[in-house]
Specification:
Mean pLDDT: 81
Distance between the termini: 7 Å
Low-confidence stretches: none
Oligomer: single chain
Length: 298
Amino acid sequence: MASFFDEIAKNRVTSILLFLIFGALFSGIVYLLVVLFGGGLFGLAVGTVIVVAYALFAYSMGDKMVLALSGAKEVTQQQYPNLYDVVEGLASANQIPVPKIYVINDPNPNAFATGKGKKASAIAVTSGLLSMMNKNELEGVLAHETSHILDGDILVMMVAIVFAGAIGIIAALVRNALWFGGFGNNRNNGGILVLVAIVVGLLAPLFALLIRLAISRRREYMADANGARIIRNPSALASALKKIQAYSASPKTAPMKHANEITANLYFSSPFKPRSMLNLFSTHPPIEERIKRLEAMY
């Protein structure tokens, strides 16, 4: 059986490797675009500036946008004293400032963490989670989200979203240039470059999506392991997942009202129905596998 630290270390290494692949794909597409358009160093500089500006905007406004898109409302300690007690206890135990706390009015049991890092974070939970979980299970879910804050997962996933979005935009430019004959006047662009452009334009967005989803799955495993370590009770987190699994499997269960494919990777569990088309490329590993790994830990 794997220990807490074995699981965390394995997932961290895998995430680093995936980001290296992400960076290589992104750099290759930018370079190809510059070559195809003959922009030289100036074109490369302009492209870099645009991407950096986009990344800074996402970093500064990403958490606010996510909370607004999710319909989350900030709450006070007077409104939810038990929720505050658990969050404050986890923050104190891990020596971080207490995250801002939000509640989403939705019967689906779920939660997510967002923010810029340990000193500026927020945790949002649904009303369904609060009504369904006992104290130990709620602590397990919130420990998972606290782990995302501690390990820098919030920033990691924001960067992944930015990379995936930028790759998609660049690939669209390549496709459009090819479609409208943008390469025809450049004698240095042979048939091989045009062929490569076609491949990039069609496949790069898919590769970016698959890598982003793989990063998300690996980090969910890591947060499960670290959350279980924080509370020293893997069974509490496994029990919470079992309740969520049973709720999601019900034919009467509706998907979360404000969740979408952009914010789905931030949630504790997939906010979509198990058989939903949006789960074809799920940002989360199968709940069965998460439960299995938790029950095998010590």
